[in-house]
Amino acid sequence: MRATAKIFWILGAFFLAVTIAYGLLTGTFDPLGVETVGFPVMVALTGLAFMIGMAMSLAVRKNDLGPSEDMYGEVEADAGVQGSFSPYSWAPLWAAVGAGLCFLGVAAGWWIFAFGVIFAIYGILLWVLEFSRGQHAH
């Protein structure tokens, strides 16, 4: 995790430099000023890289070193349970359909966006609550 944190801190610094240069160049050469789509997206990308770097740095402080941090570690050292996944879950499909319809709705029509929000909310709620009901209830 320590290497992952370093990679995202470096990526965040790189994206910050590129974002500043992009904002200055588009502000200088574009007749309408700073470009209204690319610049905010690059600011969000920079924030995302720094956010992941910070989360990884905090996780390194809290947790012990993992097998990936051992210079002489073997592949078998990382064997075992990697997480809890529900088998045969339809929730990711509905969430992805909702996200796809939301993106399509921004480009094609806001009425499609509304259907995307409905599908996305259904998929996310189903995904969050799937361990609270039925066969997988605790």
UniProtKB/TrEMBL annotation:
<dbReference type="GO" id="GO:0005886">
    <property type="term" value="C:plasma membrane"/>
</dbReference>
<feature type="transmembrane region" description="Helical">
    <location>
        <begin position="37"/>
        <end position="60"/>
    </location>
</feature>
<keyword id="KW-0472">Membrane</keyword>
<comment type="similarity">
    <text>Belongs to the cytochrome c oxidase bacterial subunit CtaF family.</text>
</comment>
<comment type="function">
    <text>Part of cytochrome c oxidase, its function is unknown.</text>
</comment>
<dbReference type="GO" id="GO:0022900">
    <property type="term" value="P:electron transport chain"/>
</dbReference>
<keyword id="KW-0812">Transmembrane</keyword>
<dbReference type="InterPro" id="IPR021050">
    <property type="entry name" value="Cyt_c_oxidase_su4_actinobac"/>
</dbReference>
<keyword id="KW-1133">Transmembrane helix</keyword>
<keyword id="KW-1003">Cell membrane</keyword>
<feature type="transmembrane region" description="Helical">
    <location>
        <begin position="112"/>
        <end position="129"/>
    </location>
</feature>
<dbReference type="Pfam" id="PF12270">
    <property type="entry name" value="Cyt_c_ox_IV"/>
</dbReference>
<protein>
    <recommendedName>
        <fullName>cytochrome-c oxidase</fullName>
        <ecNumber>7.1.1.9</ecNumber>
    </recommendedName>
</protein>
<keyword id="KW-1278">Translocase</keyword>
<feature type="transmembrane region" description="Helical">
    <location>
        <begin position="7"/>
        <end position="25"/>
    </location>
</feature>
<dbReference type="GO" id="GO:0004129">
    <property type="term" value="F:cytochrome-c oxidase activity"/>
</dbReference>
